[in-house]
Amino acid sequence: MMDQAAKILREVYGYTEFRALQAEAIEAALAGRDALVLMPTGGGKSLCYQIPALLGNGVTLVISPLIALMQDQVRALEQLGVAAAFLNSTLDPSAERDVIDRLLAGELRLLYIAPERLLKPGTLNLLAGVRLALIAIDEAHCVSQWGHDFRPDYLALGALRETFPGVPRMALTATADARTRAEIVTGLALDNPSRFVGSFDRPNIRYTVHVRTDARRQLLRFLAERHDQAGIVYCMTRRKVEQTAEWLISQGFDALPYHAGLPGSARSANQERFLREDGVVIVAPIAFGMGIDKPDVRFIAHLDLPKSVESYYQETGRAGRDGEPAEAWMVYGLADVVRLRQMVDASSAPEQQKRIERIKLDALLGWCEVTACRRRALLAYFDEQREADCGNCDVCVSPPKTWDATVAAQKLLSCVFRTGQRFGAVHVIDVLTGKTTPKTEQHRHHDLSTFGIGEDLDAGKWRSVVRQLLVRRFLKVDAERYGALVLTPEARPLLRGQIRLDLREDAAAPKASRTRRPATGAVAPADQPLWEALRACRKRIADELGVPPYVVFHDATLREMIERRPRSTGELLEVSGVGQTKLERYGDPFLAVLSEFPAADPRLPASSDPVEEPDATRDLF
Ligand code: ADP
Ligand code: ZN
Question: Could you say which ligand is closest to the alpha carbon of residue 208?
Fold first, then answer.
């Protein structure tokens, strides 16, 4: 059986090897066992049920809450020559009839369905007359009330065990924590399931956090090298989403807002453009579930902080599902700390829930300030220990310096105390640096012993101290007093000189690089024309078929074509991502493009653009 699975992997999908745990999960399903599959986004969960579906006797039911994802998967399967369909509210009655006819005729291998639809008596009756091979429950964390995506319909899925006895069920999710995992097993009534827990590392994503100085300038510098790449920019509010999208357009980017306040038609039009065209940037509010499953998103930029490490992981996880290099970039500063702390304190949620939110927020803030490998810290949060530093995060690439901030912290804390714990950071810093303002005059603060005692540091450095003292809870924000800084009990030993405090030195803003480095995952300059030609070919085919380009071939597949320069269908078939059906459907046009670009003699130096040094920069990624 597993030989046949490997054959399908090769012939249908065009891949040579299973990824970690895929073979094991497939084996469990084929043996009729229940299974729980935990893999990060992009880990390759779909193959775990699709391959058993192709080998099994009967139809595989795939339960998914996200209608857009369903459509995407079905389109991708059709391109592989697999008979798949979905049943959901977007179908008109005749299309629906058609799907049901194919189902009853035993023509379908996979049927995607939303939980609320499945649970309707009519649907259950219909399925009672069909032979089921497997039930895959995607996004299985939706059954957990602890998680952020709870869907009551998922709770009813536990009954499938009785409704379809003997049909193995496979629950899949990218949510990692132990509590959610346990709730999935009980909530879905899985029968002594085999557990396949993959690493949650996303090695192709580079994590970078900058201290905010001028967010727009910083973003522009980041985007300068990414003009033709797809990405998502997250902002806190809807208003900021709108403004940022407008501003990006004015800067020459193809940016589109995406939020719940847009009319449905505008939203789906923007989504469609993001999926189908190259280089579209979506601007969306934080935590806005998008249900967009685009594998070639190259960057995620957070202009504001998400609300927890989980949300950060989930949002950045939308980048680089295709395994190609991708960036998770964020700016963060004192204002975020103050605002988020205030928001939690001022919220009307029950105290118990506020306590959890505080813990989660603190974990995120602490992560922003780490002075050791960010990836290790991120994985440790999900209870995954990683031995080595990653070499692919900002901390690894340029380790931050720390400085002995004991005296500075004492000055700041006593200044907060002397001014009566009634003022925010701006005023406290004015007093420290000896700046006379109407407010210092009004409160006679230049008479204080702490006025001007901090002249040795500039205001930016003081902001960094305030931020880190807040994160470490030597200070807190008084929500009832408009964000006034207040000492906590932890401040006392520090003020008395009983402990020493080292703080992170904020990195200076990087100078705009003179030499433009190739954007992440870009091809060598000499291959640029071929790359463009292959992408144009892909776009033409995709438009004809009415599917997004990546459904035809992923970037990685095009890149491999450039490397290997296949000249025959046999050679093309060896490229990863080229299976039998795709070869037959559109191998020829790609071969035609490739034949127009004969490979350069490798012994000759590549005629590269002099300002770019592809070899020197390659190991940056
Ligand atoms: P998930 O559902 O876990 O987020 P997907 O199933 O969408 O991930 O897979 C992510 C990408 O990895 C897809 O483009 C898929 O075709 C590709 N992929 C999956 N398994 C393999 C494999 N064994 N070899 C190469 N690519 C794979
Ligand atoms: Zn690292």
Answer: 2
The pLDDT value given to residue 147: 64
Which atom belonging to ligand 1 lies closest to the Cα atom of 16?
A: 24
The CA distance from 561 to 151, in Å, is 43
Q: Cβ(478)–Cβ(441) under 8 Å?
A: no
- Residue 72 CA to residue 574 CA, distance in Å, equals 25
Q: How far apart are CA 488 and CA 474, in angstroms?
A: 5
Query: Which one of the ligands is nearest to 209 CA?
Result: 2
CA nearest ligand 1 atom 15, residue: 44
- Tell me the C-alpha distance between 406 and 411, whole Å: 9
The beta strands (E) that lie in 355-505 are given as 402-404, 475-478, 484-487, 502-504
Number of H helices and number of E strands within the chain? Answer: 29, 17
Residues 6+ apart with CB under 8 A from 540: 589
pLDDT for the residue 165 = 93
Cβ burial of 598 (10 Å; 0-12, 13-18, 19+) is: exposed
**Global confidence as pTM:** 0.82
Close Cβ partners of 218 (under 8 Å, ≥ 6 residues apart): 210, 212, 331, 509
- What are the pocket residues of ligand 1 if the criterion is a CB atom closer than 6 Å to any ligand atom? 15, 17-19, 22, 39, 41-47, 295, 321-322, 554
- Ligand 1 atom index nearest CA of 45: 3
The neighbouring-strand residues paired with 503 are: 403
Contacts of 515 (CB under 8 A, 6+ apart): 611, 612, 613
Q: What is the pLDDT of residues 78-104, one digit of tens each?
A: 999 999 999 988 889 999 999 999 999
Ligand nearest to C-alpha 375: 2
CA distance 388 to 368: 20
Highest averaged pLDDT of the listed ranges 146-160, 407-421, 519-533: 407-421
Residue ranges with strand state E in 353-442 = 402-404
What is the structure's pLDDT at 601? 54
C-alpha atoms less than 13 angstroms from C-alpha of 453 in its C-beta half-sphere = 18
How far is Cα of residue 281 from the mean position of the Cα atoms in its chain?
Answer: 14
| Two structure tokens written together for 15 | 């891949």
Dist. CA 119 → ligand 1 center (Å): 29
